[in-house]
């Protein structure tokens, strides 16, 4: 089945620890995105990538890092510099560049909590 | 003015009712518009794109009013399964954020 796979579904982070969230897609989509959603809030863009080996900061990139070594994969690292990492993290992908008229399709998310 | 603004609701309606949501956007250069549905603790799922001429998909109708910069979603004959949060999404064509998501309008359909 084609789709976007995020793992793990639940993740716990200790203080001072970096953690990496996985996102893989087999839709042959060009662009990939990471969002954060806090309870009762809208989605906020962390980073996005339009092609391999290139990515841009979104509105809340501080404390996060990404890489795009393969078209299919866009992992997100939540670093210890992110002081309030507890949230629902959503990965998405779309055909064309980020400014195209194509909709984004989402993985089923990772819930990150602080221990 | 916020980039994408929606009435948060909740809208509590009986089964079979017709309900409409509006969403306003700030960038007149925006070119593409979508409605997504998000169930509690789940990912957003694309409900429908919104075309200039308006479009319909079963019980759902989407409209775009460029002059007033708003889009709307009409749900006819509401079902219990329509209970969810409906997100308005706009391609703002500027700044760091390709697509801007509204905070959503919560709908509860009651038996």
Write the layout of secondary structure elements.
The complex is a heterodimer of chains A (115) and B (111).
Chain A: E1 4-7, E2 10-13, E3 19-25, E4 31-37, E5 43-51, E6 54-57, E7 64-66, E8 76-78, E9 87-94, E10 105-106, E11 110-114
Chain B: E1 4-6, E2 11-14, E3 19-25, E4 33-38, E5 44-50, E6 55-57, E7 60-65, E8 70-75, E9 84-91, E10 99-101, E11 105-110
Helix content of chain A: under 10%
Task: Categorize the overall geometry of chain A.
Answer: globular
Largest sheet of chain A: 7 strands, mixed
| Element-level helix/strand string of chain A | EEEEEEEEEEE
Q: What is the tally of helical segments of chain A?
A: 0
pLDDT < 50 runs, ≥5 residues of chain A: none
Structural class of chain B: mainly beta
N-to-C CA distance of chain A: 35 Å
Mean pLDDT of chain A: 92
Mean pLDDT across the residues of chain B is 92
Low-confidence stretches of chain B: none
The secondary-structure class of chain A comes to: mainly beta
Radius of gyration of chain B: 14 Å
| Percentage of residues in strands of chain A | over 45%
The SSE order of chain B reads EEEEEEEEEEE
Chain pair sharing the greatest interface:
A-B, 26 and 22 residues
Describe this structure in words.
- The complex is a heterodimer of chains A (115) and B (111).
- With 115 residues, chain A is mostly beta strands.
- Chain A contains no helices and 11 strands.
- The radius of gyration of chain A is 13 Å and the shape is globular.
- Chain B is mostly beta strands.
- In chain B, 0% of the residues lie in helices and 53% in strands.
- Chain B contains no helices and 11 strands.
- Chain B has strands at 4-6, 11-14, 19-25, 33-38, 44-50, 55-57, 60-65, 70-75, 84-91, 99-101, 105-110.
- In chain B, the strands form 2 sheets. In chain B, strands 2, 4, 5, 9, 10 and 11 form a 6-stranded mixed sheet that branches. In chain B, strands 1-3-8-7-6 form a 5-stranded antiparallel sheet, with no helix packed on it.
- In chain B, a hairpin with a 5-residue loop joins strand 4 and strand 5.
- Chain B is globular.
- The mean pLDDT of chain B is 92.
- Chain A binds chain B through residues 31, 33, 35, 40-43, 45, 48, 56-59, 88, 90, 98-99, 101-109, and chain B through 31-32, 34, 41-46, 49, 87, 89, 91, 93, 96-99, 101-104.
